Amino acid sequence: MTSNFECVGLGGLDRAAFNRLLSPIMAESVLLGERDGLTVRRWTDPSGVRLVLTLRGGKLQEILPSFAGTPGARLRAARRVNDEMIVADVLDEEGEQVTMLAAAAEQLHLLGESADGRGAMIALGGGVTVHPDEDAWHASDASLLGTPEEGADPVRLGAESFISYGVFDQANGEPYALLAGVVLSAERRRVRISGGEFSVARVRTAGFEAEVCLPGDLPTPVPGNVLGGTVYLIADLPFVSVPAPRRRSWWRK
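Request: output the structure for the sequence above.
Response:
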């Protein structure tokens, strides 16, 4: 499967090249918040690509690739369940639950009590394929759910389907999901700091809308296409608030 960094145009960098970019990335990043000894900062490229940087004592602990998406999911009781992901209920406009999702989160390390609000959902589409329309999706092997028994009709996913694997193992699971969605808009972008290209598509799936980021070697979708496959799901939770941090030096080279 394509790496998450390839899905946002950063896959062509070797370790040495990435390390050279790290200082300007840190310098351009903005503070999201601090909690329990961790500092979370976010860098955003003009292309919309984001890197969420978690530090402890000024030393980098982890990097999460993401994207500056538009809120498209109404979430209830977003809560941290392990060191990599949150779980939340997804509501429709009437406030009824339509599904549940597990996702990595830009604010994962800042989340205290559970929170409600509209979040942006980012799907890094390392296992996604592009299909011309709903008929083509339904006719493809990509829409098959499992292996059909001999003589039985196959079970297929609809063009707007979502199965979040992490909700079934919240203690130890990872934020991967099986997602199919209809493309509402799409465009190709270039990352300023690396020169890498990727595509981003706004899709409508079961219960919410999401930005799906695709590696540059895939064709850029057009509205009406159907995207489907395994994604790494990330949530941006702008409604999560944290106490104002104390002023001090935060980055050590």
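Helices lie at 15-28, 134-139.
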